Amino acid sequence: MKIIETHRGDYTISTDKDKLDILSIHKFLSNETDWAYGIPINTLKTSIENSLNFGLYYQNKQIGFARIISDYSTIAYLGDVYVLKEYRGKGLSKWLMNEIMGHPNLKGLRRWILLTNTAEWLYKKFGFTEIPNPEFYMEKHNPNVYNEIENTLQNKELS
To answer: pTM of the predicted model, to two decimals?
Structure first.
């Protein structure tokens, strides 16, 4: 897939995986979020490897991130969206969402999925709504999976 980059002054959004600061992304997701708290770095690396990633940078420093899981024809899941606190309020999250929604490989999708309890105001600007028929929605969710992975690794080391 073609790498796309856009610039606004000292800010850049890029889909180039090689530019991602994995340690910075891991630090934020594993310490500052509810949804990925404690995520092992290898799990994060695998998720990035298998996603379309959008890095947000200020003078080449990673300040934000989002990733898409998609078949590029019918459906996409938007996840792990963040902008560091000190860079919020500058329109960067809206710009990031514009770049994601305008990506040429994500045009004409039948369904976009997003799970969030933050920044609903932002996502509503891009057409996201609450689920009209939540009784149709099903999930298998294990919020302790990262703890279980860590415990399994520790037990193997002790064996």
So the answer is: 0.90
